Structure formats: structure tokens, C-alpha cells
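Hey all, sorry for the wall of text incoming. These are the two entities for the joint prediction.
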Amino acid sequence: MKMNPKLFFLMLIVAFAYHQTHAQKVGLVNKEWIDAMSQNASDTTYIINFWATWCKPCVEELPAFETIQKKYKDEKVKVVLVSCDFKKQLDSRVVPFIKTNGLKSEVVLMNETDPNSWIDRVDSRFSGAIPATLIVNGSKQFRFFKEGELTLTELDTIVSPLTK
Amino acid sequence: MIQKSIQTILALCVLLNIAAAPANSPTGYVPDDQAIDFKLKNTDGKMISLASYPKAKGAIVVFTCNHCPFSQAYEQRIIELHKQFAPKGYPVIAINPNDKTRSPEDSYENMVIRAREKKYPFAYLYDESQEIAKTYGATRTPHVYLLQKKGNQFIVVYTGAIDDNSEEPEAVTEKFVSNAIQQLLASKPVTKATTKAIGCSIKWRK
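and here's what came out:
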């Protein structure tokens, strides 16, 4: 069977366009972004998780963050997964990881070469070991930080009262 | 009765505090603290302590491991640090604190293989009980404690990262550990005594 080259080309374009609209875009963020997030005054609860594709405990807890985002999708709750992978591995590792695992939460990549310049801006208790999570709600003046893993139950216990 | 309850609560607090310490706390050594010596098994089978280096002026203690991409990114730089500073009295002493059950790649047997393959010129020790990492306050790999010998004591003079760019060695603008040792060698105070860096969390035994 020989396929019409024109039809094949058309299909290729459609497939590419589909891929482009559905592949999640990974934004780049910097230390000023951290300040903006941690000092924002909005009534949205931001759950900011620092992770990396190579970090086993981080990867293991990702489903909990996905579940929380799904559970509160109609509330003012926003999960942002901040990848600490090397920038040069964005296309080779991070993007394929998001696709393979079907991540729905927003993923951004920390685009700073010197971690010492931004770690303290997240929280003075943050030593740099990941996973680590910052939860903020500006209008409720709520702030939570933990270096280490969080379970779905722990997350929900924190987030649930903030949606009321 | 009331007193007993208070005692129980206090005891509980102390217990919980200790249990929570490794995961999320700023405890551990800060600059000017005195560091304890250790006796840990090297990849050649011998037991090594700080006291094993009688002529040293100090030591570059690096908590690191096999599996972590950041440790791997810094591996060559750790080797260079040793080659540059061991002759000047500051040898590298690498310590792997990871639990082998949670991170099998970091078992003693795999340490031996890696040290041999990469021809480590420094001691690579196994902190199997994780007591040294806990006492020093290491949270991630790699995590450096630069020690200076004063009499029989080892004083922490710097804690943190090796330099300011883990991804690109050629783009480094500030070599924290190297600068600190240069200052010590010039009998000057260390101007930047603490830094932070992203690293793999230490795999504590569960």
C-alpha cells in the first residue's frame, strides 16, 4: 500500500499541531519569580514544590500534588512544580518526563545558575535538599514550608481549610 | 500528678524533636563550631579518622554519594580540590551517608567500585549509622564542611557548596571552598562562611 505523499504531509502537520497544543510548555522562572510568589497578596493558595526528574523521593510524591490539583481544580488552588533539573536537560529529560507521566499541574524550570542566590528567598529553613514545598496564601497570610516529603493526607490537611 | 503529666509532655516534645531533626531543621554545625572526629570505613577497608592526617592543617569533609546527579556533576571538581589542596594541608575526606536500602547504588560495595573506576585520590568513607551526617547537620549531597585544625580541635570554617555553578564548571564565577582555603592559607578570616545549594536529600533510614 502506497500512501499519497500529500495526505501523509497533511497528517504530519495535523499530528505536529496536536502535539504542540497538548505538550505542556515549561516556563523558565528566576529568583524574582520566587519573591513574587512568596510575597503575593492574592487569595489563591499556591503550592510550590521543588523537585527534579532524577530525585526519587520527589518523583514518588508527585502524584499527591497532582491529586490535590485535581481535587481543588474549581477552587483557587494552584500547584506549581518547580524543576531543579539542569537547564540543558529541559528538552531531553524534563519535557519527556512530563509527557510520560501525564503531569497536569504547571511545571516550570528554575533558570538560575547559582542556587545560593535563590534558596533563602524560598525560606531561610531551606537547605537546598529536595523535595521541598512552600504553600502560600497571601490574603489569608498563610505560609507553610517543609524540606522533605509530604503525603497526600498532609497536603490536604493544609490546603482544605484554605479553600473555605 | 500534674507534674508527672508535664514531665511526660516535655519528654514527648524532646523525643519528637529528635525524631524530626534530620528531615527539616537547621541543627548541625555552623561556622566556629567544633567538629567531632569519626572513625569510618574507607573503600580500601581501612578505618579512617580526622586523626589519620596528623600533618594536615584541616580537612575538606564532603558528604557525597554515588547515585546523585549533583554529586556526579561535582565528582571531578572534588578530585581537583584534593589534588590542589591535599599537598597544602587540606585533604578531601568524602563521606557517603545514604541508607543502602533506600538507595542501593550507594552501598559500600558500589562505593568500592566507583572509587576504583574514578580513581579517587582521597578517602571515601561509609557512614553506615548516619551518625556523622546527623551530627554535622548534612542534609544533601554534595554538602561540604571545611575544617581547620586548631591544636587538637577541628573547627568548622565553612559549610555549603563547592562553587556557584553545579551545571557548568566552566561558567563558575565563585569557587567557595577554594577561596576559603586560600584565605586560611593566607591567615585571613573566611569571608563567605556559609552557602546553600540544591542537592539530593540524604536518604535517611526509615
